[in-house]
Design goal:
CATH class of the largest domain: Alpha Beta
Shape: elongated
Number of strands: 22
Radius of gyration: 28 Å
CATH topology of the largest domain: Rossmann fold
Distance between the termini: 91 Å
CATH architecture of the largest domain: 3-Layer(aba) Sandwich
Strand order of the largest sheet: 11-10-12-13-15-14-20
Number of domains: 3
């Protein structure tokens, strides 16, 4: 039987008095900032929510499951107020005061809300469109916990994404839309259409200026739209939208037209808007319309005035209290780039996940295996022993990965745990971040280093989220990424560029040179409370040099602990990845007595081992495949120059790729890669200095 359509306004089940209170509070906050705090330079960045409040507050009141999560953006403070954001925190954050949701580290309206027993607001970001794909990961985690882990408390939980009409042009929007609709996830897209992306009208963001007109052919997508300034219409549409998603009718998009009554930010005077348009916008003020809707039929005029005055009084007092908060403690500002204390939300550690026992002592089998098999066996063991671990990426399912590292894992562990993704690196990484927020351990594969470029925004945000939220949120994920030269080179598949990730805040970087270390480092990464970039060198995947016996299911390699490949007295070679083999061979052919150190991890890296060796040998050669300028070798050289200056008998030398891409032709490639001969020449130069 079809449900009876609601006709009475009273059936909307809306606490209109509280909606009014929240709107008046939000408006009072904006007015306090715009009229006093910003001119007085007590708030340095301000993004007004004027005109956007009604839909956000109505939506917030529908977030009732403790596993609901909203992924919003910098104009979304009314949403947070509606689900219980502390007023003093909300006022203190734009002032850069202590406490609140970032302890003065991030822009004040870039909020988050990590309550364990209440709906969450995922960490916002200052870049447009990056809020979409993490919410998709959260939605998929809801389904995984509900369907696979059989956790009934996730029944009916949803993910909500808030975005302006400008954000629909971003990679994140389209990637999230594709994943949500192809996987039929419990996601609500709420598009607040104010007609402008800063100064650029919607026609430049999407054909015709109305995104929903372009999406009606999308399978599995329900579309609702209307006036976000009309209380009754907005309330009905929002209730319908949330109900559709909660009842698993499929992903839904609600687009509400709203005015942006102030500039994009305080500094924006909106001179680009025609005067008549601005006047029309002011007539559509949702606060004015709410008052007209409520007074006198639902609230007396006196009650409205009382609420309005009270909101202004409360915000005045709250602002004073916020101003009296101390500035953040400068002595703690370096904390939380990496895990030190346990975060509130994100990763396995929060729920007290226990791993099998581990050991740094290998228990080698008789047969040698290559790195591909080492990775496959390590993934399989962790999948077997950790039900919260998922492996995904392009072609990792039936195909088993383009490098065969995930072969047969899907057939053994199922499509829910080992699965293919759409061709969107933004979606792969953003989804992984959302899953990590939801307490899973995502192991995402990017097929080649160069292909990670579209995901740079998500990778950077993942690394900084612990620091940006003052340890409220963290996203421990593992990204497996092959790269480097192989049987030939080329600019697209052979890029190394590992230094990029050592410079990315919050990321661990592992680069194994052999199968044994690949097992130990990958296992450590999958049990870590930090995000890890796990670099798989293409030339080593099946190389004879890299083959080692499987070291056992409990074997781990701690990050930041280098390995001596050779020990000697005359020179130190510091290297990693595919250059280990070439460095060892050069030492053997030249007959020099050398320490050959395989760093194994670049973040963190074993400074003590390198320093100890150089103090002994008094000479140092750094060999790496990445380009020379600002390569990681420069960091090592700078450290050793300072810390071992008095021990050096020769300048520190670097041997690297020149500052060009890797050529395709094999002879051209070998002419520019560090090779045995060029390493020998550098060693002779150092010996004769």
């Amino acid at each position: 039987m079809a449900k009876k359509k609601k006709t009475s306004n009273d059936e909307l089940n809306v606490d209109w008095k509280d909606v009014a209170r929240l709107m008046l509070t939000s408006r009072a906050m904006d007015e306090k900032e715009e009229n006093e705090l910003v001119p007085q330079k007590k708030v340095l960045y301000q993004f007004s929510a004027r005109g956007h409040e009604l839909g956000q507050i109505l939506l917030g009141k529908h977030l009732t499951n403790k596993h609901d999560a909203a992924s919003a953006y910098y104009r979304s403070r009314p949403l947070l107020l509606s689900i219980g954001l502390d007023l003093e925190d909300a006022m203190a954050a734009p002032m850069g005061k202590s406490g609140s949701y970032s302890d003065g580290r991030d822009i004040g309206v870039v909020c988050n809300k990590p309550d364990a027993d209440a709906p969450k607001v995922l960490p916002m970001a200052g870049d447009v469109g990056s809020q979409y794909t993490p919410a998709i990961g959260w939605a998929q985690a809801i389904e995984y916990r509900r369907n696979v882990l059989k956790q009934k408390e996730y029944e009916g939980a949803i993910a909500v994404i808030l975005g302006g009409d400008g954000s629909v042009a971003t990679n994140g929007f389209w990637s999230a839309l594709t994943i949500a609709t192809t996987q039929n996830l419990p996601v609500l897209f709420y598009i607040e259409d104010n007609g402008y992306g800063i100064s650029v009208t919607s026609e430049f963001q999407t054909p015709g200026g109305v995104i929903t007109d372009n999406l009606r052919s999308f399978k599995n997508l329900r579309i609702l739209e209307g006036d976000g300034t009309d209380p009754e219409e907005a309330a009905k549409l929002m209730e319908e939208a949330v109900t559709l998603v909660r009842e698993r009718k499929g992903p839904t998009m609600i687009r509400l037209k709203v005015p942006r009554l102030n500039g994009h930010s305080y500094q924006d005077n909106q001179a680009y808007k025609p005067e008549d348009f601005v006047k029309e916008e002011m007539k559509r003020d949702p606060l004015v319309k709410l008052k007209e809707y409520l007074v006198p039929n639902k609230i007396t005029k006196r009650s409205w005035t009382t609420m309005e005055n009270k909101a202004k009084k409360v915000i005045k007092e709250t602002a004073e209290a916020a101003l009296n908060r101390p500035s953040p403690d400068t002595s703690t500002i370096k904390k939380h780039a990496f895990a030190d204390d346990l975060q509130t939300i994100g990763g396995l550690a929060v729920e007290g996940h226990e791993f099998p026992e581990s050991s740094e002592e290998p228990k080698p089998e008789k047969q040698r295996i290559n790195i591909v098999e080492a990775i496959r066996r390590t993934l399989a063991y962790e999948l077997e022993t950790n039900k919260k671990l998922l492996v995904f990426g392009e072609d990792v399912g039936l195909k088993g990965g383009v490098h065969a590292a995930t072969m047969d894992l899907q057939s053994k562990y199922g499509e829910e745990r080992v699965f293919d993704t759409s061709l969107s690196e933004e979606g792969i990484i953003g989804r992984a971040v959302g899953m990590a927020y939801a307490g899973l351990m995502p192991v995402a594969e990017i097929q080649f280093r160069k292909y990670a470029d579209p995901a740079t925004e998500q990778l950077n945000n993942c690394g900084t989220v612990r620091w940006r939220t003052a340890n409220r949120f963290a996203a421990p994920i593992v990204v497996r990424m092959p790269g480097g030269f192989a049987k030939c080179g080329d600019p697209w598949h052979s890029m190394s560029n590992e230094v990029f990730f050592t410079h990315a805040i919050g990321w661990q970087v592992a680069m194994p040179s052999n199968a044994e270390d690949a097992v130990g480092l990958l296992r450590t990464a999958m049990r870590s409370n930090n995000p890890t970039m796990f670099f798989e060198h293409r030339n080593l995947l099946d190389a004879k040099y890299a083959r080692k016996p499987y070291p056992g299911d409990d074997f781990v390699v701690p990050f930041g602990k280098a390995k001596y490949l050779k020990k000697g007295s005359d020179v130190t070679i510091i290297t990693w990845g595919a250059m280990c083999e070439r460095s060892e061979q050069a030492v053997e052919e030249l007959g020099v007595s050398a320490d050959v150190i395989d760093l194994r991890t670049l973040m963190p890296w074993d400074k003590d081992a390198c320093l100890e060796s150089v103090k002994k040998t008094n000479r140092c050669l750094i060999v790496h495949e990445d380009n020379q300028t600002a390569g990681f070798g420069a960091e090592i050289a700078a450290f050793l120059t300072k810390e071992a200056f008095q021990y050096l008998d020769a300048p520190i030398e670097r041997l690297t790729m020149p500052d060009i891409p890797v050529p395709y032709n094999v002879d051209l490639m070998e002419s520019v890669l560090p090779n045995v001969q060029s390493i020998k020449e550098k060693l002779e130069l150092l010996s004769n200095y």
